Amino acid sequence: MAIANNQIETNENKNKEKEVKQYIVVQIGSEKYGIDISYVDNIVRMQKITRVPKAQEYFKGIINLRGEIVPVMSIRLKMGLEDDTFTSASRIIILKIEDKGSLGVIVDEVCEVVNLSEDQIENNNINSNHVKDTFINGIGTSGDQLISLFEINAIVDEKDNT
């Protein structure tokens, strides 16, 4: 019986370990946001973005990433914030989205990678008309900082929310 109980405890511990997710913490303006690391394919330095005519305002254009053409968008503009100001810390995060391929998103700075368990994440239950809030699916706490967790599918949706 001790062996059976031990196996049950081991299975419970494995389930608890699965609840932890990794997020890349990025800075946009003065706020920190988390992007589920499972969507992240690459992080590249800012480079020349070729503008595409008649695209939505938040689509900055395309880049050539090792022979692959990747569209790049501004999360700032998609959320209705002021336009991007590029610095030496600015990065393009290349996301791999099922059924949609690759997409680059511009962030002000990549800060760190954090592990968040389900008890460190509070789901967003706020029904808000603020465009910015529709892109957030929860708030994570890491130490004393609050991290707004992006709902990647809402961000990459081509529907114009502004």
UniProtKB/TrEMBL annotation:
InterPro entries referenced in this protein's UniProt entry, alphabetically: CheW, CheW-like_dom_sf, CheW-lke_dom
SMART domains recorded: CheW (SM00260)
Biological process terms in GO annotation: chemotaxis; signal transduction
GO cellular component: cytosol
SUPFAM superfamilies the record matches: CheW-like (SSF50341)
Pfam families per the UniProt record, alphabetical: CheW
Domain CheW-like, first and last residues per copy: 20-161
TM region positions: none
Alphabetical list of PANTHER family matching this protein: CHEMOTAXIS PROTEIN CHEW, CHEMOTAXIS SENSOR HISTIDINE KINASE-RELATED
Name of the protein in its database record: Coupling protein CheW
Protein species of origin: Roseburia faecis
Gene that this polypeptide is encoded by: cheW
